[in-house]
Design a protein that fits this description.
262 residues, 4-stranded parallel β-sheet, 10 strands, alpha/beta, homodimer, Rossmann fold, 12 helices, 6-stranded parallel β-sheet
Chain lengths: 262, 262
């Protein structure tokens, strides 16, 4: 199974891309809703949670791990790769690859949670492609609660987006990485406020394309993956709101199951 | 020691009132910042966390427990009182008492997190004072992240406050309970948007007044409480942001210590 974890429900944007681009494989999802969000927590705590999340997915039969959370990818993916002997994918490297490919003026914007921006990982990875690249980052901590409030098209969200994106807008970037799994839900507003000429990069999509390439190159792993639609969705806490958002995002009713983390 | 716990740093508004109204007693604070916030989680999970938080404070020597979090007060205080054999104070009953006393037209507004409003506890407790009371509630989930972003005087916060308070404003209430420990930080904006004639009730202040009365009535407990300023502040996660906010709210530099919860 393809195991996917996130700090909460944001990682369902990755599941949506898996359903679209790799529809034949069974998905095992874990969202740590009892401790969500990760983006406002320390690196040490995020790392501990990411290890526990990975162990849970492996116990439940995951053969591949996808860290669907930008914050956990930024802080914990390297350590997870050292610690666990399975293929581990994170959402940052594929997004960097895409941004570097599409940027013509070598000025790339990055938006994300406080923890992701603070980690500086996008800067580091983009600069590995040459010192000519300039990266302009901006934490947008209110975007996650706005999405979870479902204020996706509200005027208040537009005002906040305008405020957050102001400094990026005047910085001559030509591409912008949506460095948090929730942000693709605000794609329309972000595109309007940052300007139509800026290319938005969605890590969820790029990550699933990377997994697709990996499976094509590794038939010995690909053939062991179960190929049916019995997807499983686990959360460490259940509320009616999560069920609503999950159904709406994935466009169908899914069954969420509770799993205790402690 | 007076033990105080909260889902994060919001409970420092209660500590501030303790410092103001009961300055002689030693305070032991625990903020569950590794799992913050509680307001978007299920009752079952909030109850489990509240029991763990109380056990931690008791292990560290608390003789009195103050549940400084409205969400935990709403969901868990009754169970904590059954389970633990120490005086336990929550922030809801004192706020209800005050609101019932100040309301002249018997129409009381309540704002809080999704979990607090959903619990219906303010309605139930206010209605115990007579069926003449009408309660109009409104969850304001973005207020907590706005305060933690320190967007306390920003135009975006004013717009959101206006939106949230619209239905309350036209509902002829004459008093409004700030049913979340973060909300007193937005008192000015809330007062402007709801209208100057509405009396705001701050549960932190009312709770500390209740504790003061209790100690005056129970000298046998009062005399056992250590009376010096060696306050202790524990958090389950540490970030520089928490330190900033804590210093700013309490108006002095405090030492935050990490304690692991699992």
């Amino acid at each position: 199974m393809i195991g996917v974890f996130d700090s909460g429900i944001g990682g369902l944007t990755v599941v949506k891309e898996l359903f679209r681009l790799l529809p034949e494989y069974r998905v095992l999802y874990f969202g740590d809703t009892a401790r969500t969000p990760y983006g406002n927590k320390s690196e040490k705590t995020i790392l501990r949670y990411a290890i526990q999340d990975t162990e849970l997915l492996l116990e439940k039969g995951a053969q591949i791990i996808v860290v669907a959370c930008n914050t956990a990818s930024a802080v914990a993916a390297e350590e997870l790769k050292r610690k666990f002997n399975v293929p581990i994918f994170e959402v940052i490297t594929p997004a960097v690859k895409k941004a570097v490919a599409v940027s013509k003026n070598h000025r790339i914007g990055v938006i994300g949670t406080a923890a992701t921006v603070k980690s500086g990982i996008y800067e580091r990875l983009i600069k590995q492609n040459g010192r000519k690249f300039a990266i302009i980052s901006k934490p947008c901590p209110l975007f996650v609660p706005l999405v979870e409030e479902n204020w996706i098209k509200r005027p208040e969200t537009k005002t906040i987006a305008k405020k957050y994106l102001q400094s990026l807008k005047i910085s001559s970037i030509d591409s912008l990485i949506l460095g948090c799994t929730h942000y693709p839900l605000l794609k329309e507003i972000i595109q309007v406020k940052i300007g139509r000429r800026i290319k938005l990069v969605d890590p969820a999509q790029e990550t699933v394309l990377t997994i697709k390439e990996f499976l094509a190159a590794h038939p010995e792993i690909e053939k062991t993956l179960p190929k049916n639609q019995s997807h499983q969705f686990y959360l460490s806490d259940l509320t009616p709101k999560f069920q609503d958002i999950a159904n709406r995002w994935l466009g169908k009713k899914i069954k969420l199951q509770l799993v205790e983390m402690e």
